[in-house]
Design goal:
- The complex is a heterodimer.
- By secondary structure, chain A is mainly α.
- Helices cover 68% and strands 0% of the residues of chain A.
- The two termini of chain A are 31 Å apart.
- Chain B has helices at 2-31, 53-68, 72-95, 99-125, 131-154, 173-185, and strands spanning 159-161, 169-171.
- Chain B has a two-stranded antiparallel sheet with strand order 1-2.
- In chain B, strand 1 (159-161) and strand 2 (169-171) form a beta hairpin.
- The longest helix of chain B has 30 residues, at 2-31.
- The chains are: A mainly alpha, B mainly alpha.
Chain lengths: 371, 188
Amino acid sequence: MKKIIFLLYFLFLLAFTFFSYFFIDSNLIYLKNLYTGFAFSNRLVVVLIYSFAALIFFCFYLIFLEFFKKKIFTRKDFKIILILTIVGLVFSYPAILSYDIFNYIATSKIAFFYHENPYILMPIQFTNDPLLLFTHAANKTALYAPFWILLTGLPYLIGFGNFVLTLLSFKILNVIFYLLTILLIYRISKNFYNTAIFAFNPLVIIETIVSNHNDIVMMFFALLAVLLAQKNKYLTAYLFLLLSIFIKFSTIFLIPVLVYMLYSKIKQNSLSMEKIYLMLTFSMGIIFLLSPLREEMYPWYAVWFLTFACLLRNKLVLVITSTLSLGLLFRYLPYMYLGTYDFPTPLLRIIFTAIPVAIGLIYYWYKFKRA
Amino acid sequence: MALKTKLKVNKVIKFIKNIQILFVLYVLLFTIQPSFAASSYVLSYPESMPGSFFYKIDILQEKLFKYWYFGSFGQFFCNLKESDKYLVQSKTLFEYNQYLLAYDALKKSDQYFINTLPFLLKARNESKEISENREILRQAAQKHIEVLSKLQKEVPQSFTWVPEKAKPTNLNLRDTINKSIKIREKYL
């Protein structure tokens, strides 16, 4: 039974990787042999495949959670699923849902190849650079904090100027931080069920291993800071929180929680970690919900609160976070079909995000509250 | 009856004439745009002036920027930015008859302007495409010359600055401005 599930899961992941190559940009000269233009000329088919894939992914997630909860799956099974997930998706084309990885590479190239300050110069100022053909935010200076740019030096240099190798190096960097974050969650929660809630969440997997967003790196350092604070190592905890902030700034909103932890220690008040995790989840959740004020609610921002939400033993939180994850995966559908960000895409995005959450809440109310 | 028709024709002619005037006005209003500058290059607003507390902060910022704007393109933009800043400062000070300070600011602007091109050449040696930045430099030179040419007509030929308890300084203002123009003309 287990073997069949693992085999089906791996085949599904390989199929998803294959599907990702339908999205290759026509200007991506390095992968021109793989370009088909399928995703841009068969929008309805692509939307149907993607929706179906998201639902299957979510079904696997629910199966995994149920099996870990009932302890049918063991430590070994956890490792197998993790390896299958990484191997199955690490070679996927990263720009199905977002082009951010090209921006990471372009910013890194400015710093480590051209030896210029990416906070002053935009990629577009390096005319004739082939990256400009497919980098979408080429008219912006570096969007991320300096520690992230410093970290990207490693995959950029490992790429030896070869684009495909650089792309893979960036993916491996994310995979490393994905594994490290999972390790931390396990060390904090000390059970595979809570770890699986985060590790096998389809949104976390797609945004981290496929789309390669750096939020996982930021959250690893934030989680490490929380773990160190929990062990009363406040100085190093603040140092790691600072590193996290210097990746993407958002974790600056965790400072009050860590200050509260220190205050409780000084006052020798008993500290409920469940309460702390709830505060951390809310801090990042509120920032996630407020993100449209700055730009828009990007699905990968959910990694901010999912990192802490998985530590809570609360059914309602699990229902909301998992259904919201599915809703956020569906958030991509309107643009994928219409190919525009204009009306009705913004409205449809809200509807597509909200529907799974609403269904989840109704289910929760019927199953748990009424019982 | 014929008179009535003639009156009607006259009315139509008058109407057409009015429309013609309106059309000409419309064309004048919407198609002829006033031209304020010959170069599309935009100079910054004047920042804090010597003597102000914020000027000291500006000087510190200027020193820090030399490190922040690392790289050949970075240094090019840093020098151009500083050259612009001191040119605008010099212009403002000239307008307020603060000739000695204006003179010093113009000298600084010149020096920063001279520093720009070597960094572009360095960038070219590093295989960076410099044609766009070379064009920026050309437009900047054009704009600077435009400002300096105006100033040259407004300032006195020379000025003797007599400080307290020190020797007076003779400033050849027009010659200095002329020199500054010549520096920039090389970059056109």
